[in-house]
């Protein structure tokens, strides 16, 4: 770990960094899945879904940056390569052979929900560690994920 004047105990920072790097891997994985949906969607509502999936990808890119910067601020090493994300992410693999909007809505909403659940657990876990800053970061991410899950589900409401 790098030296820092942040007044959190080293053990707290180490544990928070581990959780941050876990969520970073999943955010990188999910961002690539949103882009996969953006590139692969076909059919009715194409443009609305194409743009929504791109908006979700952009949101995730911003979250990736915030998570990685928090790791660094706590004195940790960011583990943010695609290879590391592929090994570390707990998200399911995204199907590459789908094109129907309803299928992308189903899979992407399921992945956003799974990531949101992991982020909510990280809120509780970092709060218990006494790292309010990281808990707050995860709270903001959770709020954004919930909003975008709502947008995905609104498109598929009659199919859920």
Present the secondary structure layout:
Layout (H helix, E strand, L loop, with lengths): L9 H31 L5 H28 L8 H7 L12 H29 L2 H24 L5
Helix pairs in contact: 1-2, 1-3, 1-4, 2-5, 4-5
Protein architecture, described:
With 160 residues, this protein is an all-alpha fold. It has one domain: Ferritin (Up-down Bundle). The chain is 74% helix and 0% strand. It has 5 helices and no strands. It has helices spanning 10-40, 46-73, 82-88, 101-129, 132-155. The N and C termini lie far apart (46 Å).
Q: Which structural class should the secondary elements be placed in?
A: mainly alpha
CATH T-level fold name: Ferritin
How would you sum up the global shape? elongated
Total DSSP E strands: 0
Strand content: under 5%
Question: Helicity, in percent?
Answer: over 70%
Kindly list the characteristics that best describe this protein:
single chain, 160 residues, mainly alpha, Ferritin, 5 helices
In short:
The chain has five helices and no strands. It is an all-alpha fold and 160 residues long.
